[in-house]
Amino acid sequence: MGRRSLVSGFLIAAGLLLCGISVRHYARGWQAQRQAAAIYRSAADRARENPGILRAAAGPTADGYPLGQPIAKLTIPAAGMRYFVFAGADADALEKGPGHVPGTAMPGEEGGANNCVITGHRDSHFRRLGQLRSGHRIDLETPSGRKGYEVVSREIVTPDAVRVLRPTDKPRLTLITCYPFDFVGPAPKRLVVVAEPR
Q1: What is the pTM of this model?
Q2: What is the topology classification, in CATH, of domain 3-197?
Q3: Peptide linkage before 167 cis (omega within 30 of 0)
Q4: Comparing 4-13, 95-104, 126-135, which segment has the lowest mean pLDDT?
Q5: How far apart are CA 189 and CA 116, in angstroms?
Q6: Interval 38-50: pLDDT, tens
Q7: Please, how many CA atoms are within 13 Å of residue 6, restricted to the half-sphere of its CB?
Q8: How far apart are CA 96 and CA 89, in angstroms?
Q9: C-alpha angle 112/115/116, rounded to 5°?
Q10: Which among 198, 195, 196, 192 has a CA at the least distance from the CA of 130?
């Protein structure tokens, strides 16, 4: 076998490996969204029986935060997006779907922090977030009810712009993803979409 054949074989194997990793990533996200639907339905049934349940999507951790569990359903008709939101913004949560940033307001809660921040990957669940413009509708549903929002602003910021995570005086939904969408490798900026209750 010649050197050229060996190199070609290696490149083909590397390409297949990368394709396999990508397929596995998307398949795990798809499976997590399916499982979330069943867990979420169960939590919604429990919430109807006991209206005081808000974080009841699944068993919470010791501090009461249900890390890695589905806690809300995010629907954005203008972008064709409908995903379950998971508690946490770590790699495991974001592979499943959009993730709630711990320390910010829980979906559906008012008072306290007020700013509910949800983040997602630009190449999977939030790949169409760039389509949003002022006036577009966003629905955020928890086991205890649904709240409608309207996009009021969007901006591009650097990753160190932590002001977008801060508590706000009025209820707010903040959606964040990496930017630009077509950047190869870790993107240098963030797209921040802000919505307020309708």
Answers
A1: 0.75
A2: Sortase; Chain: A; (2.40.260)
A3: no
A4: 4-13
A5: 20
A6: 666 665 555 555 4
A7: 3
A8: 10
A9: 110
A10: 192
